[in-house]
């Protein structure tokens, strides 16, 4: 996809995501800064911030776990390892995500059961395990391009299903299966 295609898809994705009732009522959203060819998150993050939503962004730690910082806007992002952009402000700790009403997750694909295929680093698997251990129950939403919703993706015993996927053309809800 061209940079223009990615930007257009990001704008459409933001419009679709903002239709989610979970985002409409959220006070705090854990998001991420898209990089490379990932679906753009800039428009969605900005729309949430304009609404007065506290947006948390991940900070990749040396062990690939995630700390969190507050999104203070595009001018307050700094380059980090693996080509990521991270918030410049204070670090809030790995547990900060447990206070989020919605967690937006990156992914390569999601299947029709809600199982997410990540990039294999395990950072978000740790986040999902941390949420479960804390008894936190935020809406788990993956942001994808059209065509990244598949019939089935590989699954490991530690994987947890997400509640919804948002693509530029629509919202897709899943019924998490019993674990």
Automatic annotation (TrEMBL):
<keyword id="KW-0547">Nucleotide-binding</keyword>
<feature type="binding site">
    <location>
        <position position="33"/>
    </location>
    <ligand>
        <name>substrate</name>
    </ligand>
</feature>
<keyword id="KW-0067">ATP-binding</keyword>
<dbReference type="GO" id="GO:0046872">
    <property type="term" value="F:metal ion binding"/>
</dbReference>
<dbReference type="GO" id="GO:0005524">
    <property type="term" value="F:ATP binding"/>
</dbReference>
<dbReference type="GO" id="GO:0009396">
    <property type="term" value="P:folic acid-containing compound biosynthetic process"/>
</dbReference>
<feature type="binding site">
    <location>
        <position position="38"/>
    </location>
    <ligand>
        <name>substrate</name>
    </ligand>
</feature>
<dbReference type="InterPro" id="IPR002698">
    <property type="entry name" value="FTHF_cligase"/>
</dbReference>
<keyword id="KW-0479">Metal-binding</keyword>
<dbReference type="Pfam" id="PF01812">
    <property type="entry name" value="5-FTHF_cyc-lig"/>
</dbReference>
<comment type="similarity">
    <text>Belongs to the 5-formyltetrahydrofolate cyclo-ligase family.</text>
</comment>
<keyword id="KW-0460">Magnesium</keyword>
<dbReference type="InterPro" id="IPR037171">
    <property type="entry name" value="NagB/RpiA_transferase-like"/>
</dbReference>
<dbReference type="InterPro" id="IPR024185">
    <property type="entry name" value="FTHF_cligase-like_sf"/>
</dbReference>
<feature type="binding site">
    <location>
        <begin position="116"/>
        <end position="124"/>
    </location>
    <ligand>
        <name>ATP</name>
    </ligand>
</feature>
<dbReference type="GO" id="GO:0035999">
    <property type="term" value="P:tetrahydrofolate interconversion"/>
</dbReference>
<keyword id="KW-0436">Ligase</keyword>
<protein>
    <recommendedName>
        <fullName>5-formyltetrahydrofolate cyclo-ligase</fullName>
        <ecNumber>6.3.3.2</ecNumber>
    </recommendedName>
</protein>
<dbReference type="GO" id="GO:0030272">
    <property type="term" value="F:5-formyltetrahydrofolate cyclo-ligase activity"/>
</dbReference>
<feature type="region of interest" description="Disordered">
    <location>
        <begin position="155"/>
        <end position="179"/>
    </location>
</feature>
């Amino acid at each position: 996809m061209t940079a223009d295609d990615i930007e257009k898809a990001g704008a459409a994705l933001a419009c679709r995501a903002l239709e989610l009732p979970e985002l409409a009522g959220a006070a705090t959203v854990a998001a991420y800064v898209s990089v490379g060819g990932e679906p753009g998150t800039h428009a969605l993050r900005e729309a949430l911030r304009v609404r007065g939503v506290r947006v948390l962004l991940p900070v990749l730690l040396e062990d690939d776990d995630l700390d969190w910082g507050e999104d203070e806007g595009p001018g307050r992002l700094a380059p980090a390892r693996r080509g990521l952009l991270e918030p410049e402000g204070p670090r809030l700790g790995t547990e900060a995500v447990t206070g989020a009403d919605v967690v937006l997750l990156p992914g390569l694909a999601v299947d029709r059961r809600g199982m997410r295929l990540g990039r294999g680093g395990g950072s978000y698997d740790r986040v999902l395990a941390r949420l479960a251990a804390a008894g936190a129950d935020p809406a788990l939403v993956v942001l994808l391009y059209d065509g990244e919703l598949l019939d089935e993706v590989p699954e490991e015993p530690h994987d947890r299903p997400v509640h919804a996927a948002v693509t530029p053309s629509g919202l897709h809800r899943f019924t998490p299966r019993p674990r």
